[in-house]
Amino acid sequence: MMKFVPVACAAVLFLAGCAHAPRTAAPAPAATPQTEAPATASAGVGPDDNLNAVAWSQNASEHDFIYLQTYRNAQEKLLEAKKDPSWDALPKDDRVAHASLKGLKPAVILDIDETVLDNSPYQARLIRSGGEFNEADWAAWCKEAIARPLPGALAFTQFAAAHGIAVIYISNRAKDLDEATLANLRSAGFPVAGKASFLGLGTFVEGCEQSGSEKGCRRQRVARDYRVLMQFGDQIGDFANIAGNTAQGREASMAPYAAWIGERWFVLPNPTYGAWESALFDNDYALPRAERRQKKIESLRVK
Prior knowledge:
Elements lengths: L8 E2 L40 H9 L1 H23 L21 E6 L6 E2 L1 H10 L5 H10 L3 E2 L3 H10 L3 E5 L7 H11 L9 E2 L16 H8 L2 E8 L13 H8 L10 E3 L7 H4 L10 H10 L5
Parallel strand pairs: 2-5, 2-7, 5-6, 7-8
Antiparallel strand pairs: 3-4
Helix pairs in contact: 1-2, 1-3, 2-5
């Protein structure tokens, strides 16, 4: 998404994904509550907050089954959505062009990190080293271009492409990671029709001013040429712009689209990082690890 605000995202840019990149423990540079790529919680402050999350992501059959059932459910609905000329998965604010939808080509939009590509090995490295997300290590990981496809993602995207549906990836990975990301997608077997099918963080959209890493401008760019049948992501910012990264702001922004979940919007699990986490400590990554961790503990319900 990437799409980024991971458990320690690089720019707590929260509205993504994979997009999306992670964050640092130091003050976030011009960060907004949107994001999309990885990070880690509080390694070195008592138990590592990210250990169970990463262990689950890598080892639990349940993790794989959730991805499989999500993509299989979407695939079962995809061709019916294509047949319906009024079907569109873009929120109202992003459908600023071609409101009639007539004559637009069909497409699906997917975040990358933790939506189609698995970056859990990067998270595992942070846990083993006791570190937190940093731009250099994240970029090095991306440039290895070895992230594996997540269960079901490959089959779904290949099915869509085979049925004349454009597969478009919107990611919040930094601009200098574009080529490595495309190489990773292609080597993993994902359909990539060309550079136009990948809209990274540095994408310029004429007439639209992007705020932080929110993906609204790029969705608007897609809207100029496509009727979007479905969207996929691990952050709610992968689907719509969020007014404010608080519990109330997140809920209010998504409420109008609750009926679209599992029909037009398909949300995937990411317990390792995200805007959900930074919302628990007021999006303030400048806080020491211990203080961030304490605020997360205080957010827990006991009844």
